[in-house]
Amino acid sequence: MADLFASGRIVDIIVVLVAVEALALVSLKLFSGRGPSTGALLSNLASGAALMLAVRAALTGADWPMVAAWLLAALFAHLTEMMIRFR
Fold this sequence. Notes:
- This protein has helices at residues 2-7, 9-32, 38-59, 64-85.
- It is mainly α.
- The chain crosses the membrane at residues 6-28, 65-84.
- Keywords: Membrane, Transmembrane, Transmembrane helix.
């Protein structure tokens, strides 16, 4: 288990689960019309995924600009979601 964290592979597993969640929820929206708007959903999940990738970069010893870039990507995705929701 320690190796999963040290190598950052735990984040890879979580990001794959986030992608599966996105596919399931977008499919639900397409076939039933129920669920959150696709844009808000995808920007929300993108924000979370970017935060997880920032954690992965930090765990694997990436330089600070890489961590900062993932955090900035998370911020932009979050702001996009807020614009969609408050429109």
